[in-house]
Amino acid sequence: MMKKFKTSDGLMLAYSDTGTGTPVLCLPGLTRNSNDFNFLAPHMEDVRLIRMDYRGRGESDYDPNWQNYSVPVEARDVVELLDHLELDKAAMIGTSRGGMISMVLAMTAKNRLSGVLLNDIGPVLDVRGLALIADYIGRKPAYKTFAEAAADRPRVMPEFANVPYERWLAEVSGQYFETPEGLALRYDAKLRDAVIGTLTADAPDLWPFFDAMQGLPLALLRGANSNLLSRDTVAEMQARRPDMIFAEVPDRGHIPFLDEPESLSVIAKWLEKIQ
Predict the structure, then answer these.
(1) 8 A C-beta contact, residue 2 and residue 53
(2) How many domains does the chain have?
């Protein structure tokens, strides 16, 4: 059962808060929700694991103004959740969109961060991945059931290998609702309007936001077959942050599930550095 808190503009946003120890706030991908971290959660010992549904996703309220589906507003929501929980700071695990939010927070509210782990995201986004996002976001799934969607995952996501059917079934169950009319989105379709405009605009320079994380414990995971985070971008990130803990996760695209041995090793090393 998820809890809810009210934002400064009146929306009720959902979150879960379990465990004790180092506060770690998990920020999901663009169209995703707190289920992104279902596979990681059983491995997080001695951690206060906080998971958030952004506005318009999961169990959170949809925003009547779709223009508020933006990284700056979502970053503000993260700070307000920390305030609600009376936490001075937390470590961020940012998957894709969540990593962008984490970088914005490093620029705007660095004192609220105790560390950042980026899951398959960096300051430069590969155009191949952006094109795929533009193609699927906000569109009703064609599948009738979770089982049908899971069975088709190896075909539509060939960058993932050696993933059993049961994992794909769990994955799609967290991303969609099953209804008599077929699968339905677990997020506001208006998110498409908010995102398409940003995809067609000139890309902003995000390197200053990456550099703003200087001094914070930093880690990076890259799916070996990622179509959003290139090896060239990773190389530049490593050059700027030689202390960044890094691993490439084999047989994974965008995004690693976070319970792979390589992922868990990086997360453990990163957590050791969190104060």
Answers:
(1) yes
(2) 2
The reply to whether 181 and 90 lie within a common domain is no
Provide Rg for the chain, Cα atoms: 17
Q: How many CB atoms lie within 10 A of CB 210?
A: 25
Residue-level pLDDT at 1: 78
Q: How far apart are CA 271 and CA 230, in angstroms?
A: 25
Average pLDDT over residues 73-97: 98
> What pLDDT, on a 0 to 100 scale, did the predictor assign at position 197?
75
Residue tagged 């279902």 (tokens): 38
Q: At a CB cut-off of 8 Å and minimum separation 6, what does 187 contact? A: 31, 32, 33, 56, 57, 58
Whole-number Å distance between alpha carbons of 126 and 128: 5
Residue 119, domain extent: 3-137+190-273
pTM of the model: 0.96
Sign of the dihedral defined by the CA atoms of residues 258, 154, 147, 28, in that order: positive
* 169-193 pLDDT tens trace: 999 999 999 999 999 999 999 999 9
The answer to whether 160 and 255 have CB atoms below 8 angstroms apart is no
The whole-number average pLDDT for the span 253-270 is: 98
